[in-house]
Amino acid sequence: ALSVRSFHYENPYFDMSYLILGEWHFFLAERGVSKRDWAFSKSQYQAASDVYQKIRIDKIDEALVPTLLYHQCWANLESGDMANGAGAATRLIEKYPESEFVPEALAKRGETFLLREDYTSALSDFDTIIKQYPNSPPSELAMERRGRIYSYQRALEKTVSSYLELLDRFPETSGRAEANFWIGEGYFELKK
Question: Among 21, 15, 87, 153, which residue's Cα sits nearest to residue 145?
Answer without folding.
Answer: 153
